[in-house]
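batch job 7 of whatever, protein = Fatty acid 2-hydroxylase
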Amino acid sequence: MSPSTSPRFFTEWEVARHCTKESCWVLLGTRVYDVTAFLRMHPGGEALILRRSGKDVSQEMEGPPHRHSENARRWMEQYYIGELDRDSGTEEAQTLRERRKADEQTGGQTAEKTTDMKVKQEDENSPYNRCSSVDLDKDLVDWGKPLAWQVGHLAEKYDAWVHQPVDRPIRLFGNPFMEASTKTSWYWVPVVWLPIVFYLSWDSYTSLAKGTTRIALTSDFSVPVHKYIFPLLFLMGWFLWSFIEYCIHRFVFHMKPPAHNYYLITLHFLLHGQHHKSPFDGSRLVFPPVLASLVVGSFYAILCSTLPEILGTSVFVGGLCGYVVYDMIHYYLHYGSPKRGSYMYNLKAYHVKHHFEHQRAGFGITSTFWDHPFNTVIPDEKF
């Protein structure tokens, strides 16, 4: 709802009726929010919101056990739909009712501006004033046009802007073909890469089973490689991918581009910034084909240049399987609703905190393992 639009009013009974997955409303003071679209995205799981549907969540927003970040509060404002109309009325609700009545009677632009100024002055002391509505029409970019060529002009404002997430799809390019090349449906990752994983696993194992593979330690001495070493090589590749995943996420995706460099800002937005700006745009949650092929190809080339081909392939296929699992887990962390207390539940909460509060920490996706030795662990909080 635009800040300049007169709000609708709802009774407590009307709000309380919306308490299902199909329609879930909550209150924040006298403000009414339709959070139906956010249920599956909530890091604490949809059940936590459903138990509080139709009720005031002010205490839960402030904590304990978890105080929600400013980004989380700003995000919530995107679901604002109106005000609570109590019989006794509060000063804030009464002010808004008078504003709407004035708008309906005058309908004039001058009267609307005057009323907005009065309401703004009277609402300055409201505890929810800091949760200002997200007005995309007044954003730093024009959301009606492709964003790829706009973000570079944000300069020093880019870093703060890109880490204020919004719930809306992003269009990067005007050209339909270029735009399509930046999107990937989640199911294409296993469809494309798992057959390659199965084939290379079978080929590596059968090649090792021939008993002809040896590692030369000196010119006169070599060690045979048994076929049963394949699972160890596979797991080694998976472990190596987890480290590569962490390094790419931390040092490439989360680099802070120089404010004066238009091209590096644009590159950062295309690589990962757009994901932080719109973290629930499902078509951009997995690696696009070009980037995935580049990463996978580079990984294979490095391994085969440092190890005998069959050993390099065995390690590579484990890393490739790790990449598939990484992309699938990443998608699930954004759209899944894991059981409370499970590993995936805690991992989802950890990752969403990375998006909303700790953008310079919590770089692990499939696990938090590498965050510990590199001291980038997000502080533990209960949800």
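notes: The chain has two domains: 10-102, 177-356.
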